[in-house]
Write a structure and sequence with these properties.
This protein is mostly helical. It has six helices and no strands. 12% of the residues are buried.
């Protein structure tokens, strides 16, 4: 009977599970993850907008603002580029704005401008609500 240590030293498990992902598969995984994160941030930003419009300012509003500020810091650290985009570039030569996410090209291209505007509108409404 082979011991667990001998099993791992033999490298047999590596040969059995060495189905390395090719670049196309990695890109699909990156695009899927990127899209899920995008959906999450859509929920965050539209909850924030909804909450300030209906004047329901609660702890979740501040959590949303914190999450969006965190995203802004991450983007600032990577020169306004998503870290997933940088990773995805290793697996694609595409110059399209949506090569790394499952979005229409126009939305991927103007994503930061659109959502920054929505966020700023929500913050302006929040400031108005707080001092009204």
């Amino acid at each position: 009977m082979i011991s667990i240590l001998q099993f791992f030293k033999s490298g047999w498990y590596k040969r059995q599970h060495s189905d390395k992902m090719n670049g196309a598969t990695k890109l699909i995984l990156i695009k899927s993850l990127h899209t899920l994160i995008w959906v999450f941030y859509n929920v965050v930003i539209f909850y924030l907008l909804y909450a300030v419009v209906v004047d329901s300012i609660d702890k979740w509003v501040w959590i949303c603002i914190g999450l969006i500020v965190f995203e802004g810091v991450v983007l600032a650290l990577f020169k306004l580029r998503c870290p997933l985009t940088i990773v995805a570039e290793k697996y694609s030569d595409s110059q399209k704005a949506n090569f790394d996410i499952y979005l229409p090209n126009w939305l991927a291209k103007y994503n930061k401008e659109i959502y920054t505007t929505i966020f700023l509108i929500a913050v302006l409404i929040l400031v108005y609500r707080m001092f009204d």
